[in-house]
Structures are given as C-alpha cells and as structure tokens.
Design goal:
Elements: H1 3-22, H2 28-40, H3 48-54, H4 58-68, E1 76-81, H5 87-98, E2 104-106, H6 112-115, E3 118-119, H7 123-126, E4 129-134, H8 148-153, H9 161-175, E5 184-186, E6 190-191, E7 197-203, E8 208-214, E9 223-224, E10 230-232
Parallel strand pairs: 2-8, 5-9
Antiparallel strand pairs: 1-4, 3-6, 4-10, 5-7, 7-8
Helix pairs in contact: 3-4, 3-9, 5-9
C-alpha cells in the first residue's frame, strides 16, 4: 500500500472517530485515553513507596496510603501529598539522588517554602491528600499558549509547585528519566511572594532540573499547565 493510501485511510479513520464522539456514540474521555496511550505510549506509574522512603517519610506515607486506599489508575498519576513534605525537602532529596549521576537542580531561590507563599492545595495546611494528573512525560498540550491569568478565567485547576516536584523525584527514582524534557510545566496552582508563577523542566544539555518563574500574564507554546483531573482529600 502506498504512503498516499495509508495517509488517506488514517485521515478517514480519524474523521470517523471524531464524528462518533460528536454524535454521542463514543465516550469522549475513553477516546481521549486511547489517544493518550497511542501518542505518548505506556508511561510507567511512579513508585511512591520508594519515593517517600528517599524523603525519609516511609511511615507517614504508609499511614496515609492505608487511610486513602486509592487504587492505581493506568491513565493517571495519583500524587500523594503527605503532611510533612515540602518543596525544600523534595528539592534537597532530589539533589542528593542526582548528585552521583553528575546531575543537579537549579532554583535561584534558597527557600522555596517561604517564597512560594500561595498554593491552591498544601498538605501542611489542609492535611494529606491525593491529586491526579494525566500520566504524561510532557505537560498537557491543550494548555499550551495559555497564561496563568487566562487559565484562571477558564476556572482551570493546575498543579502546585509541590505537586510538580514530587513526580519529578518519583519518576527519576522509578525510571531514571525526567519529566518535561521538551516543554515546561507552568505550576498555576502556586504563586511566589511577588506574584510570579513557578515552572519546572529538565534541561538535557545541562543535566539540570530547573525551577524558574514567569509572569502570570506570560504565555508560550512550550509552557503548559498540568490539569488537575481528580483529587481526594480525606476528612480530618
């Protein structure tokens, strides 16, 4: 079969699939999950047990995990934010984990816990919780070219800085790979004391996980928020 015939068939299949969704004959969420696996492949789940062991919080994680009883989802990362974990603690642990590999973490700010003073969710304020994001290496493509201000007008819920740093540590411990190697996650669930929005990505040629800052009005194709897909906050 020629390439022209293959592309024509592919186009017709895509058009048919879209029509089935628009006509209500296929569930859009189920279709999106199939496309996600096709485009991004099977991204492994994060081993949170070894992640919290590295943080020195095995007992705390075990208690929260038992209390929440959240089942694994093949399409999501269910990120446990356990009371006691902080951005500073995650960054310090990530630096220790990366050091033997000649890799590093750059933040420009010594005390992230103090400077990132506004967060939509905070385990040390609200108690331990679990929040779900799509299981993808790169941040959500549909949020490209949308600033934090624009996303706010759309009632968007995005990752906090802590919710982005925890998967970075966990993903490296699980796979020895990094997140956001082509783009960056805009952490729209957090603000610095000066009103800036933190972002996180991995610079391949420098071997460095970078935490940096953007104006809430700035937008770019490579800058993308990770949408909160589900959240579980247990009763006090």
């Amino acid at each position: 079969m020629s390439n022209d015939n293959v592309f024509e068939r592919l186009w017709k299949l895509a058009a048919s699939a879209n029509k089935l969704v628009l006509d209500g004959k296929r569930e859009p969420e189920a279709f999106a999950e199939v496309l996600q696996q096709f485009v991004f492949g099977n991204v492994p789940d994060i081993n949170w047990q070894i992640t919290y062991a590295a943080l020195g919080m095995s007992a705390e994680y075990a208690e929260v995990s038992k209390k929440l009883g959240v089942a694994e989802n093949p399409n999501l990362w269910l990120v446990p934010a356990v009371k006691g974990v902080t951005c500073n603690k995650v960054v310090a642990t990530l630096r220790e984990v990366l050091k033997p590999f000649g890799l590093k973490v750059g933040t420009d700010i010594d005390d992230l816990d103090k400077d990132v003073s506004t967060n939509d969710r905070d385990p040390n304020r609200d108690g331990s919780y679990v929040v779900g994001f799509r299981r993808t290496v790169e941040a959500d493509e549909e949020n490209a070219n949308k600033s934090a201000n624009v996303l706010k007008t759309e009632s968007h819920k995005g990752a906090t800085l802590l919710e982005r740093l925890l998967p970075e540590l966990g993903y490296f411990l699980t796979t020895r790979h990094f997140l956001d190697v082509k783009n960056a996650t805009l952490c729209t669930g957090s603000r610095s004391s000066s009103g800036y929005v933190p972002g996180v990505y991995f610079v391949v040629d420098r071997g460095e996980v970078v935490v940096y800052w953007d104006s809430p009005g700035y937008a770019s194709d490579y800058l993308r928020s990770r949408s909160v897909v589900s959240s579980v906050i247990p009763p006090a």
